[in-house]
Amino acid sequence: MLDQPQEMAGAQDTIYLCNFRVSVDGEWLCLKQLEDVEFVDNNYQQPLSPPSPVEPLALLAAKDPVLIERSNLVNISKLVVKELIETSQKYGRMLDSDHLPLQHFFIVLEHVLRHGLKPKKGLLGPKKELWDILQLVEKFTPEAQDMTTSVRDLPTVKTHMGRARAWLRLALMQKKLADYLKVLIDRKEDVLCEYFEPDALMMSDEAFIIIGLLLGLNVIDCNLCVKEEDLDCQQGVIDFSLYLRSSHHYYQSADSVLDPDNMTTVLDQKNYIEELNRHLNATVTNLEAKVESLETTNALMKEDLEISKNNYLLLSDENSELKRQLGLSGRASDKADEGGGGDASDGSSAKKDGDKKSGEVSSEVEELRKQLEMEKAKRMEVEKELKLQVNMKTEMEVAMKLLEKDIHEKQNTIISLRKQLEEIKLINLEMFKKLQECEEDLTQKGELVSRLQKKTTQIGKILNNMEKYNHLLRDVPARQNSTGSDGTAARPTSWGSVNYPKDNIFDKKSPNYYKKVDPLNNIDFSKITKKSPKTPEDVETGGPPPSKVDKKDENCGGEPQE
């Protein structure tokens, strides 16, 4: 009886993930027990929590274990990625392989990528491996070729799963993991359908959620040594207690606040690594250029070596031919000695002939040796000259390139100067036209000024005459008063002349009433004061031209006209 409560307590403490549904509640991972198995403590009250947006989907898919697995993987991926980003920003350092959230991330990512992977067909059929899928990335993105080849050449990794883990770690360090996986997901109908089941996570729309989570990891800097890790062994398990929320857990908001100093150090490290990467790329390009130059020199040296080998073979053939001729001459002399049963004089003469021939052959051999040495010396000189010519050629090519650059630059400057010259010509033409217009305006204004001066002189004369006439009009009433009382006395109308009462200019009935005659100059002011019609020139200049005024002056002189 005592053992039964202990067994119940053990059953309550043990968590079977196959009987739970994973959901996200705020920042925590909630495991909710399914209906078939229930171990509920009567004294425990579950804390209230807001409804999760994932719960309706989980309730609809409660009968489908594949959908439950997919939702569990997505939710745990969210929590692991969030924890990884928060810890990396909190500690502000480069993450290595000993970082616990990073280990959890790789374990969850491995489960995500292997979800719904097809088994092998039959006993002898090939097994579908994750490494086979990841190798397809280099066909679509050439940037992944170097990484894939380096993973293939790793000496410490032997299995396909180990290579897949190394590939994922290198992709995360390069911050291209999300991009590479997106390439596969975009071609899931053509490529992934051969490796995954139709209800797999990589074939569903939830794969894009995983890609979005992986994009957030681009802010993390990792330094993972793939050679030192044992990637062929089975990876560890995840401690879900780090992501499960307890009813008595109250986190402080101050801990979640990021330290700005740590952020600055992380950004400084990131900038330093990027600068180092740029320097390394520059050194790689320089080394590649040097390798290309060395390859070209090596090819030239190989060609020279082949030429020297051919010359050596020719000389060796000539030497063997000479040796053969020397042997034939020696044999002929020996035969002559053996067949010398006749006269001794004939034998001695044949021997002498053989000695002469052998001497000649030896001299020819020495001459050929001397010629060979001469040829070798000449060959060395020719090689030196060839090297000098090659160097001269390279220098000439460099000089030609520099001259071409200078010529192009000078041509560009000449073209720009021509354009400037054309612009200056256009400006000069415009200035010349403006100058001509100004000169025409000046001549017109000078003529106008001369006309106005003439008019002012004429107006001055007219004003003087008017003043004199006003004085005369003032003098006439005084003289009238000085004459008789009947008012019939004579009135002077002009200088030295008298008007009689019958011809009184001040009488309205007199015919000369309207003729205002200046007694001094005999000017008829009635014609001058009459408004003459204005011409367009009068309107523009403010008065008649000088020619019209002159005509008026001519009419004004002499006797008044009726």
UniProtKB/TrEMBL annotation:
Gene Ontology cellular-component annotations: cytoplasm
Cited SMART domains: RUN
Question: Per the record, which residues fall in region Disordered?
Answer: 327-368, 478-502, 524-562
Q: Which organism is it from?
A: Menopon gallinae
Q: Where is the composition biased (Basic and acidic residues)?
A: 349-359
Coiled-coil annotated spans: 277-325
Pfam families annotated for this entry? RUN (PF02759)
From the broadest rank down, the organism's phylogenetic lineage runs: Eukaryota, Metazoa, Ecdysozoa, Arthropoda, Hexapoda
Keywords, A to Z, come to: Coiled coil
Q: Where is the RUN domain?
A: 96-229
Q: What is this protein identified as? A: RUN domain-containing protein
Q: Which SUPFAM superfamilies match?
A: RUN domain-like
